[in-house]
Amino acid sequence: MTDGELPVICSGKGCRAPARWRLVWNNPRIHTPDREKVWTACDEHREPLSHHLAVRSFLRRVEPLD
Q1: Are 18 and 10 in contact (CB under 8 A)?
Q2: Model confidence at 1: pLDDT above 80
Q3: Which residues pair with 63 in a beta bridge?
Q4: Alpha-carbon torsion 43, 63, 65, 13, what sign?
Q5: Helix (H, G, I), strand (E, B), or coil: what is residue 17?
Q6: Structure confidence at residue 22 (pLDDT)
Q7: Is the pTM of this model over 0.90?
Q8: How far apart are CA 17 and CA 29, in angstroms?
């Protein structure tokens, strides 16, 4: 983050914590295979958000947010 940039916030419902993870996903029923969507997650919401995507077979990978 540089001066003047806002921190990336977790995608968890109602969460305002800084994100530390990128959850990369794709819904094959509506997205082309090369399309990747990203949710961001704090440490607390990394697992529940990953699980939500994984049980739907949407989760591709989890990466540290750089």
Answers
A1: yes
A2: no
A3: 22
A4: negative
A5: coil
A6: 98
A7: no
A8: 31
